[in-house]
């Protein structure tokens, strides 16, 4: 790992040249024609599907998967394309190393495969980049759903207003728009959303905890929102209450989403994908609610991505955790220690922070320090199977790293 930390510092000529071209121009002269060609080549397969688009800053994958499981249980022939994988019948296809919305050619290929196999419904995880770059053109969304909109991707969108506008594109032509009444995005999205608006929230909205009670194994208040979002879609499609409740009660969660790695050491370890200030806050609050003796957080921030969120994540971590170990998380061509320094700058209690740029060593250290009754949360990678140093992807798994560390302890 030490050798990997010697990252490539200088961007190539092509990379620098690309940075001079306005993003909107790239979208229209490159991404848009690519999308049109892909739709034409594969024969616009989405026209024969009812596509449910799930967007938001946090909670997309869990919500999309819950919807998929409910529809499948109800007997609706349904496929899923998420950050984790594409589920098409018995096939579970990986969607890439750091992929969210697929490239237009890959998406249209998958849509054709889904249609040709007789599926009628598709749950599609939908990102702001995918919407802005026309990657999702021709998806023919029937229902659009949003989980929340918080600080993220400002390296690309520049302002929060632009980020919200990108998300809003999902709701321009949908028959139904499912919105989170408790989120700040509700009012602006309600103004632009097409079709029938369906709302959800903890205490109010069309679906809330009082008018649709349910039981779930998923931890945290944020997962109550994810469940309510899935319920809203299922009810819109006329699925029976008992089917919805059964699936939610049985749903065990997903790889890398508040996933507990079992130990026999007297402390608990969780791996979670939280990589935004809001996601990290929700994850740490959830772990804190389990009343650990001490709560430790291990995380970093991605290189060449939204730099403004780094101190915010440091601030959140130091407010909620007893010890914070900062490490590598896909630094790419940025210096790992500079990223760590930026995260640490948001923390008022510097004595809480330990800096260990080697991710395996950071996890080893956290588990070495952990005592009976403690909880260790490892954030930022979740389900992902690689770490990016320089321009190279290297095999990586937080789950495997935890198992290695446990053997050492």
Description:
The protein is an alpha/beta fold. It folds into two domains: 20-250, 3-Layer(aba) Sandwich (UDP-N-acetylmuramoyl-L-alanine:D-glutamate ligase); 259-408, Mur ligase, C-terminal domain (Protein-Tyrosine Phosphatase, Chain A). Helices cover 39% and strands 18% of the residues. It has 15 helices and 16 strands. An eight-stranded mixed sheet has the order 4-3-2-5-1-6-7-8, sandwiched between helices. Strands 9-10-14-11-12-13 form a six-stranded mixed sheet, with helices on both faces. The chain has a two-stranded antiparallel ribbon with strand order 15-16. Helix 3 crosses helix 9, helix 3 (60-73) crosses helix 10 and helix 12 (309-320) crosses helix 13. The longest helix is centred in the first third of the chain and has 20 residues, at 23-42. The chain is globular. The model is unreliable at 1-15 (pLDDT under 50).
Regions with little confidence, pLDDT below 50 for 5+ residues: 1-15
Return Rg in Å: 21 Å
CATH topology of the largest domain: UDP-N-acetylmuramoyl-L-alanine:D-glutamate ligase
CATH superfamily assignment of the largest domain?
Mur-like, catalytic domain
Strand order of the largest sheet: 4-3-2-5-1-6-7-8
Mean pLDDT: 92
The largest sheet is: 8 strands, mixed
Helical residues, percent:
25-40%
Name the structural class.
Answer: alpha/beta
How far apart are the termini? Answer: 20 Å
Oligomer: single chain
Number of helices: 15
Shape designation: globular
Proportion in β-strands: 15-25%
Under CATH at level 1, the class of the largest domain stands as: Alpha Beta
What's the total count of β strands?
A: 16
CATH architecture of the largest domain: 3-Layer(aba) Sandwich
